[in-house]
Structures are given as C-alpha cells and as structure tokens.
Here is the input.
Amino acid sequence: MSSAFGNCIKISIFGQSHSEAIGVVIDGLEAGFKLNTDEINSFMKRRAPGQNAVSTPRAEADEFHIISGVVDNITCGAPLCAIINNTNTRSKDYSKLKEVPRPAHSDFPAFVKHSGFNDIRGGGHFSARLTAPLCFAGAVCMQLLEKENIFIGAHISSIKDVHDSDFDMVSVSKKEIEALKKSEKPLLNQKIWPLMEETILNAKSQGDSVGGIIECACVGLKPGIGEPMFDGIENRISQAIFAVPAVKGIEFGRGFESAQLFGSENNDAFYFDGEQVKTKTNNHGGILGGLSSGMPIVFKAAFKPTPSIAKEQDSVNLTAGKNEKLNIEGRHDPCVVLRAVPCVEAATAIAVYDLLLENSR
Amino acid sequence: MSSAFGNCIKISIFGQSHSEAIGVVIDGLEAGFKLNTDEINSFMKRRAPGQNAVSTPRAEADEFHIISGVVDNITCGAPLCAIINNTNTRSKDYSKLKEVPRPAHSDFPAFVKHSGFNDIRGGGHFSARLTAPLCFAGAVCMQLLEKENIFIGAHISSIKDVHDSDFDMVSVSKKEIEALKKSEKPLLNQKIWPLMEETILNAKSQGDSVGGIIECACVGLKPGIGEPMFDGIENRISQAIFAVPAVKGIEFGRGFESAQLFGSENNDAFYFDGEQVKTKTNNHGGILGGLSSGMPIVFKAAFKPTPSIAKEQDSVNLTAGKNEKLNIEGRHDPCVVLRAVPCVEAATAIAVYDLLLENSR
Amino acid sequence: MSSAFGNCIKISIFGQSHSEAIGVVIDGLEAGFKLNTDEINSFMKRRAPGQNAVSTPRAEADEFHIISGVVDNITCGAPLCAIINNTNTRSKDYSKLKEVPRPAHSDFPAFVKHSGFNDIRGGGHFSARLTAPLCFAGAVCMQLLEKENIFIGAHISSIKDVHDSDFDMVSVSKKEIEALKKSEKPLLNQKIWPLMEETILNAKSQGDSVGGIIECACVGLKPGIGEPMFDGIENRISQAIFAVPAVKGIEFGRGFESAQLFGSENNDAFYFDGEQVKTKTNNHGGILGGLSSGMPIVFKAAFKPTPSIAKEQDSVNLTAGKNEKLNIEGRHDPCVVLRAVPCVEAATAIAVYDLLLENSR
Amino acid sequence: MSSAFGNCIKISIFGQSHSEAIGVVIDGLEAGFKLNTDEINSFMKRRAPGQNAVSTPRAEADEFHIISGVVDNITCGAPLCAIINNTNTRSKDYSKLKEVPRPAHSDFPAFVKHSGFNDIRGGGHFSARLTAPLCFAGAVCMQLLEKENIFIGAHISSIKDVHDSDFDMVSVSKKEIEALKKSEKPLLNQKIWPLMEETILNAKSQGDSVGGIIECACVGLKPGIGEPMFDGIENRISQAIFAVPAVKGIEFGRGFESAQLFGSENNDAFYFDGEQVKTKTNNHGGILGGLSSGMPIVFKAAFKPTPSIAKEQDSVNLTAGKNEKLNIEGRHDPCVVLRAVPCVEAATAIAVYDLLLENSR
Here is the structure.
C-alpha cells in the first residue's frame, strides 16, 4: 500500500496501464476554489504521449474527467476524483511478459511481490502512465500555490551528455519560470534542443535509449516552511519525486558537489535586502534544516535511460526456470526526460503544497 | 510536526540539544525480542562525539536508558521509550545566536517558523545530537533485520576529494559488511584514512570544515519488498536519510551517472544463479519500480561540510535589522562524515525494517 | 479531510449525492483474491433504495463498476477503484436548501465549514448515499474475512419501541448469522416485522419518521486481535460506525447496562472448553482491553429518526438572516434502520479486517 | 501499534504500570505557548490515586517532568516529552497472574497477542495508570482550547443506580463548567455524593465494585468544525474515549433515547439568536453530520464496574491448561468513575483540539 501521499491533502492514485481507467482522489482541498481546467489540460498535454518524434507513438488524449468534488468546477470541500480513461490499449498477449521479465523494469519484483497476480499489461500499476493522474493532482496543487505567489518550473538539464544551462539559484524568478513554460521546449537555452533531439534519435535508430537530468525550481516560498527531521522539504520532495518512474538520484542546491567544498565555500552568507533576509549565494538550494530559507528551492533529479529498448536482451523465463533472450515489442519512448518535466513539477507541487498547508494552521 | 517515521513501526524522536534529555519512542515492536544492549551501545559509540582528533571535543557518553517497553530487556509489545540525558551542555549565553543566525544552519528559518520561540541552544531540535536517538532506534531495527538475515553497512566513500574504493554492487556481502564494522575506520581501503584525516585536520587548522560522501549497502533483502509510487524503497530510504543533518543528495545504484548511459549499458540482464534470479550487473542498486530485486541495495548520500566554522562569516542581526559579522565559538566537528556513518546505517535500517514489516502481512 | 479509513488497508470514499458518480478506492488488498461480484451485488442490494414500502422511492440500481485493481476480477495488488454512477438525480433547484438548512441535517455546519461552497444537492458528500461505496468496500472486506472463518451479521434490534430478540452473546454463531442473511428481513424474530412496518408506515402517513437500534455480531475472531489505547477494537469499530449517518450511540456487550452492575455480576468467568479458553457469560462483548477475547464481538448502534420529514419545521434563512418555516420536499426514507443494517455490517467488516491485517505481521 | 492519536497533533503514550516510568510525547504543538504547570498539576491530581476512601490506596504523586519541547515552560515547537516516574510499585511476584488471567481484564488476550511476553505487572501497558500521561496531554490541549474560549467539563452522571442531574444540553456554559471544576466532587448536585459514596463503600465492603456513567460537555466550539465520514467529531471523540479503560458505551446528545423518538420530536429547530444560528433543543448534542453545530457538545460514556474485585472468581490456568479459582490481591479502586472524570475530559480535549487545528488551516 503506498499510492497515497500527503498529510494535509491526501493524493490517492489508482489504476493500471491497461485497466479501464486510471485516476486520482484528492482529499483535503479547500472549498471555493475555481479550477482552471484549461490550464490543467495544457499542463497534462506536456506529459501526454505521441506528440513528437522523440516520444512513444501511443497516442492518447489523456482527457481527465472530474466525477466528484466540484460544483461547476468550483471545489466543494468533498474529495475530488478525476478519471482518465485508457483508450489506446493494445489487446495483444502479455502472458509472455509475465514469464520473461524486462530488465530494469518492475516486472520481476512485482511478480514476486504479488505472487504472480500482478497486472503485467503495460507494466500495470508500475507504469509511467500513472504519472498522468500525478500530473492532474500536481496541476491542481500548482494553481493553489500560484494563488499564494509560489511558482514551480523545471527544465531539461541534460540528455545524456548534452547539457542545458543551469538555473542561477540566487536569481531564478517567477518570470523566468513562466517564460520556460511558454517556450517550445523546457530549456533555458533553446538552441540546445537540436543536439538533444539528435542524441535521442540516434539512440532510437540503434534500438537504444538515453537518460538525463531535470532541474526544478520553486520560487516564492516564504522562510520557515517545512518540518524537522523526517518531514523536511528535502525529505518530502524526495519521497514525491521518486514516485516518478526512472528517477535514480536527487540533489538539492550544490548537492553532491558540496561534498567537495570547504565549509567557508559552501556556507551561504546572510544579508539584508531591504527588510528581507537573503543569502548571497544559494548552495543550500533554499533549504536549511529541512526548512525553507526564503531563497529559491532548486534541485536536480537523475533519470535513467528508458528500460524498454528494441535491442535483444538477456533475461530469464520464470516459468521454465531457465535463461532466455528477450525482444521487447511495442511502443516506447527512447527518452522519458522531456515528458518527465511536468511530472517533476507536479510531484514538487504536491509536496510543497502539502507542507505549506501544514504550516498554515 | 514530523519527528516521526514509519507505517508499521512508529519512530518518534524528541528532545533538543540542550533540553534535559533527548530520546525516542518506538511503537510497533514485536513482543518477545531480546535486545542486545551491548551491541546497541557499541553501535551508538560509533556516533558519539569526543572520540578522536577529527571530532568535536564535546564528550558525552550517550548512554541510553530504556524506561518502558521491555521486561528484562525483552520487548513486551508496549511502546519502547529510551532516554539519553544531555549532560555536557555549556550554560553559556545563547541569546546572541538567536539574533545572528549561523550561515548554513537552521537558525534563521527555525526562528521564522517558530516566531522566535525556537530553542536556539545548540541548534535545539535541529541539532545533529538528535541522531543519537535515531541511532538507538536504528540499532534496534538492525537487530531485528539481522534475525531475518538482512545486513546493513556503510563506509566513507569520500572526504572532500579523497576517495575510498566503492562497493562492488553485485557482490557486496554480509561478510564484507561485518568486516567493515570491525575495522578501525569504516573504509573499504583502510590505507586511505591518513589522507582523509590530514584533509580534515588541515581544514580544522584553518578554522574550516569539509564534507564527504557515504556509501551504504543492504544485503539479504528478498525480492518484492517495497510499495509502488510514494512508498518505494528509494522514496522511504530518502525520506529517512534526509533526516540526518547535512545530507544534500542521494543516489541509488549508478544514480546520476546512469543519466549519461545508454539503456543497453544501464539495463541489468537477468540470469538464473541456481534457482535464484539475479542480475549480472547492479546499476539499479537493488531497486526496480521501488521494489527490491533481490540484489544488494546500494546508495550514496552526499554530506555538505559542517556549517559551523571558526572563520568569521557574514550574517545579519535579526533584532537590529542590519548586517553583522559572526564569529562562532564552541565545539564543532570539522567533518561530520565519520560520525554520520552509523546514522546513515540507522536511518536505512528503520526504513527497510518498516517496509519489511509492511510486506510481511 | 477524513473520508479515509484504515491503517493496513486504506478505504478512501469520494462523491456527492448528485455528483456524476460516487465511489471508493481500496488500497492494500492482497493480490490473487477472486472477488465474488454476485455476492457484492447481493450485499449492496440490501442497502439500495426503492425496494419496499418503507424505503425512499428514489430507485437506483447502485451498480458498481470496478475500474482498476483487478484482472478478471482477481485482485492484482494495485489499488482497487469502484464507481457507482448517480443516475436518478432530480435536476430541481437546490439553491433554496442552501439558504434554509434542514434541521438535524449537516446543511448548516457544512455551509459554515465550506464557506457556502458545499454541494447542497441531496446533502452532497454528507448524504447517506455515500454508504453505497462503504458497502462495496465492506463487502470486499467481508469476503476476505470469511476466508479466515470470520463472519459478521446484524439485525434490527428495535424500530422505535418495537423490539426484536437480542443475540445470545455467548452462543451467536456463523450458522445463525448466515440464516439471518437469508431471511426476508434482518430479524431474529421474523414475526415482529409487521409491527415494525406498521410503526414506520404510521409515522410516514403523518409526515414523520422513526429511528431504531441495530445489533451486530462478529464471530470467529481469534483472541488477541486489536491494539492498545486508541486502536482497540471498540475504538476502531466506533470510528467506522459513526461514519454511517444518523448513528448517535454505540455500546459493546452489556454497554450502558454494565454501568449499573456489580463487578461480580459483570465480570465474565473464564473456563476451558476443551483446549479453548472461553467465558461463561459475554458481558464484555468479546473485547477486553481493546483486544478480542475469542468470544463473539457484539455491539449495538442507535440510529436517530430520519431528519427529513414532511411536516413543516422551524428553520432559518441564512441569506436573509431571519427565521423561516421549512417544508421539505423530495423522496425520503421514513426509517433508515432497515437499509442501515448492511452499512453497519460493512463498517464493522472494514474495521475488523484492518485490525486483523495489523495483527497478521 | 496504537498508543498514538491525532492528525495535527500527535499524542504518543508509552510505559507500563510497573516500568521505570510512563509518559507521553506531544508533537505538533505551536511554539510560544506558556504552559501553566500549576493547572496541569491540579488537573492531574483529580486523577491521582490514594486521595480518598473510594480510591485505591496506591499513593503516587503522579508528578510529571517535562524533559523536552519547552524553554522556561514555553513551547519551542519541538516535540514535548513528559515523564511520570513509577515510584510506588510493589515488587511482589506477578508470575501467577500470567498463568491465571483476571476476568474482565486484558490479561488473557494480551497474553495471546504478545505470545506470553506481555508485561503482566499491574496490567502493563493496558493499566489504567496510562491515563496519567493521557491526562497530562489533555491538560495541555485544554489550555490551548481555553485560549480559543473552548471549555470542557464532565461530571458523574451516575454511580450504579444513583443519579446526578443531567446537563441542560442547550444552556450548559463555561460558567457552569468552571463551577463544576471548583466543586468538591464533579457533580451538578453535590448532595448526591453521600449516596454515591455509600454505594461504592457498600460494594467495597463486600469485596465488590461498581460502575457508572460520566457526562461531558464542550462549549465554545464554533460551527463547522469536524470532518465528514470517518473523522467526524463523534468518530474522533469515540476513538479517544474508548482509550480510557472500562468504557463500554458512548452516546451523543439524546443518544440511544433518540432511537425511540419521532423525527418531529428529535429534530432540533433552528432559530436566530441575534446574529447567531442556534437550535431550540439540542438532541443532536452539538454535532450534525459529524460537524459541530455551534451548540454545546454533550455526550455520555458508560463505565463498567472495576474488574478487580476481592471476591473469589472462576478463571483458568493457562500453563496447566485447567480451570482454577482466582483470588486477586492488591490495591484497587472499588469504583473508577470518580477518577475517570478528568480522563474523559482529557480524551475529549485531545480529540477536539486536533480537529480544531485541522480546521484552522
């Protein structure tokens, strides 16, 4: 049990890749908030498949359908449930997959965990498709955060060895985040996209895949938000971000790099900017002792390359009890990073909004 | 609120650096388990201060005192509470610290969060001293895990730019982990210690501090443990590890490096080793889809340099509303990494044991 | 936030009386369990409206639709979501109700709580209609309990001043419970129904309503299930039962009567029945110190009369800020007790199954 | 696991009757609140044993000791831990009790639950002594509630068949509650005490015990507090109240009596009292749909007679596997009701304060 998150709002995600539908229940939303459904749609479209050459051709509209919790799209205080139908599922035979688990996928441990009763079709509940309801919930939280002047935006920091610029952790702003969302690709330096695309398509043409890194910023959070020890901002964002499939690492501020610095280099000096306390540098990524410092929250998440590749791989046949070669068919993203950008934003929005509520009592 | 962790066991940590005592309540322990208090003592001694040249001279025995939950050191099913007295607190004046927050510490956001009522003495509830009860709880969980043949051990992967060897993620074993715990320093390559020590003492002599990286392994966990989405092993270990002060990043398996690999390089091929399914490589760090694969779980955590340094720093005076220079007095570790090794093991033990229980129904 | 229940399974209920649909997410179900959907249907039919003269004429099939969590009706370990469409909603104007709250309903406090944004149509999320997903979840838990030889059944103990016999708390058995479910009405003494019906119809004919008491038994629970203090069986069943609208009291075993007894009368003597420890009487209702004793669990829940009555009532106009007479139109049960019997069983099944799982680690 | 309560504050109670100490951790308290420790002491003295002829002669001061969470008795935002030492424990041999469980006590199911490892001394964690930390936590919450003009008070409604007057559920006020706390015994009609005392002492003289009923009121709660379904005020108060040993029933407002009324009798008509919406009667006990209506919250809890009696009783020898007579020695209350009054108030304060916080976001 675990497809739920949050202390003050409860996000409960359900569904499998090929079940009739997937969806989410959001409990704890304040009443009287008018949802901007157009914005939610735009947000979810950034995640939706089938939109360009570097994405899976499985084309689904990912249209959500709110079945409770609102009256005329205004929250009424009751749990909000949104459903996304699974329309474009291929009725091919998945029994083979249950026998021969795909490397780097959840197939094998899910088979063991659920004694062979796991829904293997498209990865079942472990499918990246479950990020669609995550994005829905994140889009709702993001609208509630924006009402409080808190803005979240992410960009592709790298695809394999092709790098975008990094956020300036001190100065990243609402304006920059909004510009990012309007730009064609989520990049600080748009000119890098052709190189990234080339990297992805090269991998694809060889039946291979690539990974990458996403950098995310959250601006506008006042100081003192977060909880000590296990519910600090780092703890809660991490817990949420690792729900996005393929994430294998996360670092805040200077992160792993800070392990190589002297204290005198890494410490961020305080100063007064008018009446506001700020730091001259932001190596701490906006988080001190688990609490927001008032500086932008900045972190990076590492994505492994898509596990599903066209190349033949070594696997095992669990029924036959012997090694077996595996050739994966079907439609797959040669790189998930582009579509993962809104997922990272959504997971962050949920974690931050929940902590904000916890600190608003 | 947040100093609690766990779904099946509940670890609730309390206390401030200079309160009368600190401690922990562990609820949900099975009855009939004989605690090995000597082993708990040894474990906690690894964290205790004042033991060598690279540690703070604040010498406290960190003696725990179990006040409930056991009869003759055998758990009785009631919540276990252990107390550690704060004996060696200096009664100096801390009021200055409240006014002038230490860079890279929780002082400033804690002041804002608690409207100035936070206990500033020694960092209060945000102090690294709170890892003592964390280690107590971790030591208890570790004993329960060892009963199930699950072993957890960590070593210093690096201090600043001095690196130990890495675990062989495929072959790291109980034997290796136990050897590590018996060795003088938690290092795979003992010969590297003098260089690490020199790095630390050099920084210290300049009134500075250094950070580093800890690598941790957990072996013996059968496949299928963990929960989808928000309660996968990565999610839960991350949530626990970021409770250790100074952690700024975490990565599982190849982590950030995997973002630079092709899928065909990163995917770990399955094969049968007798009747057991294994992978030839372990880039996934023992976790697929949030679930254990049966391979060793391996991760790295990055620690920033100790924020408390002797060098003068720029800060602000919150009362006076103006910038002010800060000179930190008191006793501090020039590098927390050595003492953080058991903390990382403890946090991991708590997270893994909780998930194990959740999967034992 | 609160429409969720359970530590080991999570029941999350959503929907409003007149939203597009209502439903429930059940997280934490073991994989590999074949749902008997016919039995779930039969169970839910006992709650469904429009089936006889003493029930509301709002006729809805209450057909559930499982949209996730199963493959061929076998649980797959993913959260199970079931939807029940709201088909027979009348599109009349509810705006008046928001202004003039119905006495003994949630209308007024819900209006205040949600700043007037609550969904007033049919009582919104506070409607008794939400017991349909509760019954679905209860029916699923009941099937899982029956696999463990644990059986739950309830009967109408009284309608106003017409009383059925009581369970023999010592001897009530699976056989008796099953007979009860097959009988036309949930009564130990079928002959009492005409009197009960007459009482209800008399009230109805006068535009009035009546309440009653339901007695529920759970047999087959082995001793030692439950948790100390806040999560004892009484605590958890109470928390679940008060989720059924109109419940105003609950008592276990001899309940309020035991307050009038001597200890020597109320204490239940232990004896060996073969190898099994039993008690000669069962004044404790199967629960000692919050834990199951192995004797049948027996409790009673008191239901107030249906708040919606045809008689004119005194109320207030919240907009106009003055007193106003209220005449409630619409379709209402003159007595909810009959339809509440499966709701009580369902709430009990959820509470007991959750505690059983918690004790199965 | 279960000795914890609360969503917004977390009360975690630990200890056994004869462990070194008992205590409580309260997480989630706002910083900057000055505790009135004298008042807490007075409150706890009402529960403490050995104070009069109708109480157990086990005399313990029940002195609490706050070891964390405050600076100069002002909350600092860190979890507050308070300890109460167990000083007057008799070191007699309890091994017999483990073999021969006391009727109506938790001994037998606790033995089964914890495989014989339960702490049997004085009832262990199931002892009524654990209400001391409950009262401490309740006293803290009560002070926080009083700051919001919310007041909680209870009185003995009956001892066996001797009855006090009942609260006027419409008019019960802060003034009445405060008068009650200052009166010698918690009774609306002080003159009834001699009869109650006589009833208790008569039972005691015969080696027997008696039970009774406590009525509790909470005034000052504004409308709209509470959560739908499982976290309504009735649900949460019930969950908390059943943590007090010996409670076997609870009813809100007219409770079981309302099951015998017509809707037209039971419904409470709304009217405007100035600008405030009130009800003319308060059969609903201040709770509609789980939410506060603004009227006083009133409920009754039934206590069974003290299980420990001097009379010889029938029991079993679990080791020998045969029936055995039991004569209980030791010091016991012939009636727990008097000392349970502050416990009921404390449990109510915790439940109400937690819901208040949940509604304050």
Remarks:
- Chain A touches chain C through 49 residues (CB under 8 Å).
